[in-house]
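[step 3/7] inverse_fold.run input=structure_tokens len=187
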């Protein structure tokens, strides 16, 4: 064990702050192509470019067996009738799994199996732990009125592959139907 290595970090589940990593901020412009309703996107961007989420990732080591982890904060909001969401990705190393631990708020994860194309919706909020198997695209949505914060913990060699989904998006989308989160086919 390297005595120089910092093993303990500090996080604030209310603000999404986490020591020991760099923060990535994603605005609506960064994620705009993920939303179905492009008219609604343009309407919002006419007067503001809201921050949708932030992630701080800590990468303590890169040798086989090491883990990386990140704290995400996904703000509440809608674009048309679709909840604020993360871009979503596969892991570059397809077999790399991930554990998500919900800390605050209410939300869900959309999982899509790369081979079968099958979708699953899992609750992610305070009190939920979601296991994301390998070979599975994953995206997070905030279905509540407060920030959704969560940890994701994954193998150090997982990597992020955004390319495939940037082109064809997920097959399903989560919309608000009369106050109820409802999974629909994406057009
Ligand atoms: C998470 C995600 C985080 C942001 O830490 O990176 O939720 O989502 P996008 O990376 O899709 O923008 C994770 O799954 N890491 O592997
Ligand atoms: Zn991931």
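[step 3/7] decode complete -> sequence:
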């Amino acid at each position: 064990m390297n005595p120089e290595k910092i093993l303990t970090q500090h996080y604030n589940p209310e603000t999404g702050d986490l020591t020991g990593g760099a923060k990535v901020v994603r605005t609506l412009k960064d994620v705009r192509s993920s939303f179905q309703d492009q008219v609604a996107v343009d309407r919002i961007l006419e007067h503001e470019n809201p921050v949708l989420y932030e992630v701080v990732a800590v990468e303590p080591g890169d040798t086989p067996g090491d883990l990386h982890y990140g704290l995400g904060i996904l703000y509440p909001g809608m674009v048309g009738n679709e909840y604020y969401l993360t871009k979503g990705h596969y892991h570059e190393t397809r077999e790399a799994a991930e554990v998500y631990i919900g800390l605050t708020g209410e939300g869900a994860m959309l999982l899509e199996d790369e081979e079968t194309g099958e979708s699953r919706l899992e609750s992610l909020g305070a009190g939920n732990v979601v296991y994301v198997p390998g070979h599975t695209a994953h995206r997070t949505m905030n279905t509540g009125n407060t920030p959704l914060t969560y940890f994701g913990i994954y193998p150090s060699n997982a990597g992020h592959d955004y390319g495939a989904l940037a082109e064809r998006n997920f097959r399903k989308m989560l919309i608000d139907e009369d106050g109820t989160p409802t999974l629909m086919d994406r057009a």
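[step 4/7] annotate
The mean pLDDT is 97.
Residues 55, 70, 72, 86-89, 98, 138, 140, 152, 154, 158, 160 surround 5-phospho-D-arabinohydroxamic acid (ligand 1) (CB under 6 Å).
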